[in-house]
Amino acid sequence: MNNIFNPVYRQEYLFGYARGFNPYVDFDPNQSQGFILGFKQGRDEYESMNGKILHGIPKLIVTNKILEDFLLAGMLGMNINSDGYTAYQIDVIQKWYQSGVEKYDVKQSDYLLSILEENGIELI
């Protein structure tokens, strides 16, 4: 394995990772080792959240940001809308949401809602 602290290797790895997370991009074997490892890691992460590409690409793509939003919704005791997600994605989302529900603190939620209300922000 190459030195991950090498800036060129790291840049190639990150470029490959970004390309691998994009389900519409095909693998290009004529790349550097850093790109190939990054691509494979990105593809593995994509498929762990959205299902195998060979089963089809869903309309909505789940990312870490989206999963963190569902985790936060669970922590705040908010309802979620899972319309448009596949069964595989809903299973992943449900685990993150449930993790947030387990950390739900009513006092913290009330405090946040009062701050939002003071600033004129309403949650529907």
Which features does this protein show?
124 residues; mainly alpha; 2 domains; single chain; 0% strand
Summarize the structure.
This protein has 124 residues and is mainly alpha-helical. Helix content is 60%, strand content 0%. The protein has helices spanning 7-21, 33-50, 64-75, 87-102, 106-118.
Give me the secondary-structure topology.
Layout: H1 7-21, H2 33-50, H3 64-75, H4 87-102, H5 106-118
Helix pairs in contact: 1-2, 3-4
Q: Could you tell me how far the N terminus lies from the C terminus, measured between alpha carbons in angstroms?
A: 50 Å
Major sheet characteristics? none
Q: How many DSSP H or I helices?
A: 5
Q: Please, what is the average pLDDT?
A: 90
What sequence of helices (H) and strands (E) makes up the elements?
HHHHH
Q: Extract low-pLDDT stretches.
A: none
The class by helix and strand makeup works out as mainly alpha
Number of domains: 2
Quick one: how many beta strands? 0
How large is the share of residues in beta strands?
under 5%
Radius of gyration, whole Å: 19 Å
Shape: elongated
Percent of residues in helices comes to 55-70%
Description of the structure:
The chain has 124 residues and is an all-alpha fold. The protein has 2 domains: 1-52; 58-124, no CATH class. Helix content is 60%, strand content 0%. The chain is built from 5 helices and no strands. Helix 1 (7-21) runs parallel beside helix 2 and helix 3 (64-75) packs across helix 4 (87-102). The longest helix has 18 residues, at 33-50. The protein is elongated, with a radius of gyration of 19 Å.
